[in-house]
Amino acid sequence: MPTLPSPSTPRAPWRGLALLLVCGGLLVAIPACGGDTSPLPNKPIDPSAPDELLFQEGLTAYNVPDYTTAQARFDELLQKYPDSPRRDNAAYLAGRCRYELADYNGAITTLTQLRETYPTSPFVHSSAYFTGRSRYQLNDFLGAQADFQATLQSDPNGVFADNAQYFLGRCLYEAGDLVGAATELAKAETTYPNSTYVDNARYYLGRSYFDQKDYTSAAGPFERVLQTQASIYADDAQYYLGRCHYGLTQLPAALTDFTNVVTTYPTSQYTDNALYYEVRIYADQKNCASANSTYTELQTKFPMSTYLTTAQTYKTGKGC
Question: What pLDDT does residue 58 have?
């Protein structure tokens, strides 16, 4: 029987590595796809200054990526040159290095300190987001929720705004607030329709309704996942769409959905589930020949499936 994907393993395409931008002849770090690289007030950048040279060493290592070396350079800059015009940039990248190295507690400490010390820094938006992602990895969904809200408040059109909106909904879902999750995930879908997380948002919007047994509301988001090109949630959505139709006693539609799981996604974690529900539907329709042959298929393909006993009991109870 499958389990939900671990919240510490996001299934959406990864985004967010630092990019390089030529600025005045220098390579400087910016948050992926946007951001402001201007130095803090009254501190112009001297390309030959030791702090700038140290920053560029860290940036080069970061983009290899060699996060261990990069972190050491950024930490050294912050320690030796507290007045450097790169101090907020270095602090952000030091926190990002910790995040990439799975030092989530360290990332939280570094990025939170940046936000508190430099509240007007252009890196506050990105720092709030990765503070939230770090807490999310630690299953601190309440703390992460506050960070993602801060991300959106700092810049609702920022580079990580769509990600933050999705993960805000996911935090609520993981915490069991299905009503709140549905509200925030619906915002993620409608506010950021071009986001790489839109299929994730649709899937968990459907799950939020499904887990409330609101099958009518759940069906639409699952159908929209299937309309998303190459969604990694397609098999999951197809299965749960079948569950919605089954819950609404729309048996022909449900049978089509479950058959699609088996034929289109044969390696899906939900294939044995789908075969089990095919057995149920055939038994409900008093089509014992199909119920028995589908049970045999389930037994052959998934001899260790936990659904075998349940399927046998169900079809027997229905006279098959």
Answer: 97
Residues 6+ apart with CB under 8 A from 48: none
Please tell me the pTM assigned to this model: 0.84
Question: Ramachandran region of residue 118, left (φ > 0), alpha (ψ -120 to 50) or beta?
Answer: beta
Cα separation, 49 vs 257, in Å, equals 64
Q: Which residue do the tokens 């919240």 mark? A: 7
Query: Would you state the pLDDT for residue 42?
Result: 54
Q: Rounding to the nearest 10 degrees, give the CA dihedral for residues 290, 292, 295, 299.
A: -130
Find out whether the peptide bond into 65 is cis, omega within 30 degrees of 0.
Answer: yes
Tell me the average confidence (pLDDT) per consecutive run of 10 residues in the chain, 320 residues long: 34 35 32 38 79 96 97 97 94 98 98 95 96 98 97 95 98 98 97 95 98 98 94 97 98 98 96 98 97 97 96 96
